[in-house]
C-alpha cells in the first residue's frame, strides 16, 4: 500500500461489508436522520458497479420505483449504512452492468448464480 | 502570521462527526528549520526563513552549505521566507505541524499544475460560439472579436487571449484544518490544494 492510502486508511474507520459485485441484489439498511429521530430505511436493488479503491470505494444500487429507475451511490465506509444484506448473486459478464438501464421487463432479469 | 512548508501527498475523504463525507488533502508539513531571522534593524523588515526536506550534501553548493551550517542543520531542498512571523524564532529552531490546531482556518499557497498552451475557453472560461450549425465552421472554441475597429484601431493591453496556462503561484484562502497528526508530521486540510502530488506548498495562518 502506498503512503497516501496508508494514511487514508488510518483516518477513516474501515467497515466490514459482505462481499458482493455487479449483478448482485442487495438490501442496504440506511440510517436516516429526521430532526432528532433516527430511523432505518431499506433500499433494495441491483448493484451496477463497485467503484474506487480503499476508503473511498463506493457502490451503485439501481432499483425500479413505480416504473422509474432510481440509482443511489453509497460509499463503503459511510457511517449511515447500518448493514447490507446480499439477497441474490447474479451471473453477469461485466464489472459494470450499465446495459441494464436500457433493458425492461423480462430482458432486465439477471440469472441467479448458484453458490 | 506564521506558516510552514509542506509537501502535498494527495487527496482522500474523511467523515465528519455528523457523518458527512468531506473531501480533503493530506500534506506532509515540516519539521522546518529556521535558517535565517531577518530584523527591521538589519534587513529593513522582519521575516523568518524556513527550510524543509532533506537534500544530499553533494547536490548542495558551497555557499548554501555555509548557510545551513550557520543554522547547524543539514542541507534542505526548499527554502521559503515568511514575513512578519508572529512567534519569536531564533536560528536553528524547528517549526512543526503543532503550529496548527484542528478547526482553524489556513491559507495554502502552491504552484498550480501546468496545462501548456491553452485556448480561451479553458484559460479564461469563455463560452465559445455555442453553435455547431448556423454557418459555423471550425470556430467552436474561438475567442470572437478582440475589440472595435477604427477607434481605437488597436487591441487593448491585457485582452484575454490564448496562452500558457497553469504553473503559476496560487493561494487558496480559508481552508479548514480537519486533522493534525504531529507524530507523522501530517496535516489534513479540507478541499483541494494547488499543484500536483509531491509538490511543495506553504501553509499560512
Describe this structure in words.
- The complex is a heterodimer of chains A (115) and B (205).
- Helices cover 8% and strands 43% of the residues of chain A.
- With 115 residues, chain A is mainly β.
- Chain A has a 5-stranded antiparallel sheet, with no helix packed on it.
- Chain A starts with a helix and ends in a 27-residue tail after the last strand.
- The model of chain A has no long low-confidence stretch (mean pLDDT 88).
- Chain B has helices at residues 40-43, 62-70, 120-124, and strands spanning 3-15, 21-29, 32-38, 47-54, 76-83, 94-95, 105-111, 116-118, 163-165, 169-181, 186-190, 200-204.
- Chain B has 205 residues and is mainly beta.
- The longest helix of chain B is centred in the N-terminal third of the chain and has 9 residues, at 62-70.
- In chain B, a hairpin with a 4-residue loop joins strand 10 and strand 11.
- The chains are: A mainly beta (115), B mainly beta (205).
- At the A-B interface, helix 1 of A face strand 1 of B.
Keywords:
heterodimer; A: 115 residues; mainly beta; 5-stranded antiparallel beta sheet; 1 helix; B: 205 residues; Elongation Factor Tu (Ef-tu), domain 3; 2 domains; 6-stranded antiparallel β-barrel; 4-stranded antiparallel beta sheet; 3 helices; 12 strands; 9% helix; extended
